[in-house]
Design goal:
This protein is α/β, with parallel strands linked by helices. It is built from twelve helices and 13 strands. The radius of gyration is 21 Å and the shape is globular. The protein starts with 5 loop residues before the first strand and ends with a helix.
Length: about 350
C-alpha cells in the first residue's frame, strides 16, 4: 500500500482505557507499517506520548473528545479535520468512537476517503448523532452483531469481526498462587464497571479473614467514591498503573464486575495472557470466551454471588492455577496481536482498492 496514509481517530488516549490499550497493542504489532502510514489523531489524554514512537505522526485535535462536546466544537472539529485531509490526503479514516466517526464522515465530504469504524461495545440508542457512521465496521466481539444489525440495517453486509489484540506468549511461564490469595479489581472507575460491587462484596466477607488480600487499581469519575468507600475495609487502593499488563503477575485473581454491553474487557484479555484466574460477571458476551471450566462466573449486579465465589476461592485455592492455565489456552490464539494486525491491514488494503 505505497504512500497511502491512514488517519486513526480516537476520543482520547489514556492509561486506564480499554480502547487506548487496544490501539497500543495494534499499532505495536503493525511495526513499520504503522510508522510509515498511520497518522493518529486524538482529543488528548494522559498517555499520548507513548504512542508517538509507534506511528508516523500524532496530532492533537481536542474537538474529538466526546466528554467536552458542543455544537460549536463539533463544527470546529470538522473544519480542522478537513484541513488535515487536504494536507495529508489519507486514503482511509479509521475511527474508534462514534463521535469521532461523525466528525470524520462530515470532514471527508468531497474527498475520496474510505471510512472504517471500530465498535468496542453496543451503544445505547440515545442522542442526536448516528452511532454507526462508516463504509465498513469492525466489531471486536461476535455477540455484538445482532444488536448492531437490529439498530442499523446497513451494518449487516459491511462488518468484520476482529477481536482486540494482545501480545500473547506462546507458552505460560508461571501462574503460581500466593498465600494469602491476592484479589485485584482493575479498570476505569465508571458506573458500568461496578467497582462498588467489588467493594460491597469484600465488606460481606469476614474482616477476620487472614487468607486473602484485596486491591483496587484504576482511575475515572468515581475515584473519590472509591477512596472514601474502601475506608475501614481490607482493600488497598493502588491508583492508576501504567504497566498494568506486566504488573498482573503480582496478583492471583482478577475480578471483573462490568454490567456494560461491551466487546470483551481488556482486563480479562490481560489476565488470560498472564494465566491468572478470573472472576467475572455474566456480562453480555461473556460466553464468547468464558465458561465454568476456565473462570468463576456470577450474575450481573449480584453482590452476594460475587462474595460467595471469593469465599470459595479463599477456602479452596487449589483450582486457581488450573483455571488460569485453561483460560490462557482457550484464548491465546484468538487475541494474538500479530494475527489481528494482519487482519486490520488486510481490511485497509481492501479499503484502498475500493476508494
Amino acid at each position: 500500500m505505497p504512500d497511502k496514509k491512514i488517519f486513526i481517530l480516537v476520543n482520547s488516549l489514556n492509561i486506564t482505557c480499554g480502547v487506548s490499550s487496544h490501539l497500543f497493542y495494534l499499532l505495536q504489532a503493525m511495526g513499520d507499517f504503522a510508522k510509515d502510514n498511520i497518522i493518529l489523531i486524538t482529543g488528548g489524554g494522559n498517555a499520548v506520548m507513548k504512542y508517538e514512537v509507534l506511528v508516523r505522526q500524532v496530532i492533537r485535535l481536542p474537538e474529538l473528545q466526546h466528554e467536552t462536546r458542543s455544537g460549536a466544537g463539533f463544527l470546529k472539529g470538522i473544519v480542522r479535520l478537513r484541513k488535515f485531509i487536504k494536507t495529508y490526503k489519507p486514503a482511509i479514516i479509521h475511527s474508534h468512537h462514534f463521535y469521532a466517526a461523525n466528525i470524520g464522515a462530515f470532514a471527508r465530504f468531497g474527498f475520496n476517503v474510505f471510512t472504517i469504524q471500530t465498535i468496542h461495545g453496543n451503544i445505547p440508542p440515545v442522542g442526536v448523532l448516528p452511532h454507526y457512521r462508516a463504509h465498513h465496521f469492525i466489531l471486536v466481539s461476535s455477540h455484538m452483531v445482532r444488536q448492531l444489525t437490529k439498530e442499523n440495517s446497513t451494518v449487516q453486509a459491511l462488518y468484520t469481526v476482529i477481536p482486540s489484540p494482545f501480545p500473547f506468549q506462546h507458552s505460560l511461564l508461571d501462574n503460581t498462587i500466593r498465600h494469602p490469595v491476592r484479589f485485584l479489581f482493575a479498570g476505569r472507575f465508571s458506573p458500568e464497571k461496578r467497582v462498588d460491587l467489588f467493594i460491597e462484596a469484600v465488606r460481606l466477607i469476614s474482616e477476620t479473614e487472614e487468607n486473602a488480600e484485596f486491591f483496587i487499581a484504576g482511575e475515572g469519575p468515581m475515584r473519590d467514591y472509591v477512596v472514601a468507600a474502601i475506608k475501614k475495609t481490607k482493600i488497598s487502593f493502588i491508583g492508576e498503573i501504567e504497566d498494568l499488563a506486566e504488573r498482573l503477575t503480582e496478583y492471583d485473581v482478577i475480578v471483573n464486575c462490568t454490567n456494560a454491553q461491551e466487546g470483551f474487557p481488556t482486563i480479562l484479555i490481560q489476565a488470560a495472557a498472564s494465566g491468572k484466574c478470573v472472576i467475572s460477571s455474566r456480562f453480555k458476551g461473556y460466553s464468547d470466551f468464558l465458561s465454568n471450566e476456565n473462570s468463576y462466573l456470577f450474575d450481573v449486579n449480584d453482590v452476594e454471588g460475587l462474595a460467595r465465589i471469593i469465599k470459595q476461592i479463599i477456602s479452596e485455592p487449589e483450582n486457581l492455577s488450573e483455571k488460569g492455565l485453561r483460560l490462557f489456552r482457550d484464548v491465546k490464539d484468538v487475541f494474538r496481536s500479530d494475527k489481528i494486525a494482519e487482519s486490520v491491514k488486510s481490511l485497509y488494503q481492501k479499503g484502498v482498492n475500493l476508494e
